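Hi all, long-time lurker, first post. I run a small reading group and we've been trying to get comfortable going from sequence to structure in the token notation. Rather than ask abstract questions, I figured I'd post a concrete chain and ask someone more experienced to write out its structure so we can walk through it together at our next meeting. Sequence below, copied exactly:
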Amino acid sequence: MPIYKIEKQKVRQLGLKKVGFGNEFALRDFFADNLEDILGVRFLEKEYQITDGRIDTLGIDENDSPVIIEYKWKENEEVFAQGLHYLRWLRENKKHFNLLVQSKLGAKMEVSWERPRVILIAQGFSRYIKSAVQEHSNVELKAYTLYEGDILHIENVYSPFTEKIRVEKAEKAETKTDAAKFDLQYHLNITSPEMQKVFLELRDMILKLPSVEEKNEQKSGITYSTTKSFTRFEFRGTWIQVLIRDPDYSEDTNKQIKDVTTHRWGYKGMIKFTPESDINYIFAVVQASYNSTL
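-- Answer (accepted) --
Happy to help. Here is the structure in token form:
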């Protein structure tokens, strides 16, 4: 992807040189040290030993979902099968993961097992992996490029959540699949018709932001993310609890955000969204949370 520098209303293309990491261990350690900033995932352990292998990195995201991260220094065909193998181990060994989370984040921490995630990170992926991954709703592909001058670019090559939105828009369908136990309509049915109307207006505004993914196939609520989650909507009978990344944004001039840092939800701020709320005000706060992930 060309990168340009603007000088006096004129542009020139920058010739950034790709340098890469020294080896796969350097790649793994860099991401482990910066996991929350890059992916919005809280770090738990690296090189986690299981009976027949080592998981590169284990973490937990803002929705308290387990996350497996596997790295390959360059393009590698094995990473996909490896990720699926570790996902199966995770599902069969929930107790081990729960204990790891509690030892790192506290005994009161509860893991959400609705949708464990596998994130595969490499310089690129073959067409075979890009095709096969579409059969698995838990696997995401991200490509990295490290340039001279310590510039890191992360590309979302594939996300099952982005693909789902694309298909829905193209087909304009409301049909459910066997795997979609929870969907947009499930969450809308929880709340009142008045709340549904204002939420859908706000949802349209959020989805117009660049590079936003919607994740609605989870019981806890609907999450919106870039490379990191920036808000989650949890539906109630007559209102919606909106969770955001931080408790303090300059856009919150009326001081409506409540600090929920002590709850250790992964989000630190919460704002109450009702049918009477100013949609533009709520959107401004959500957008501020969105901007913090860029």
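A couple of things your group might point at:
The mean pLDDT is 87.
The radius of gyration is 20 Å.
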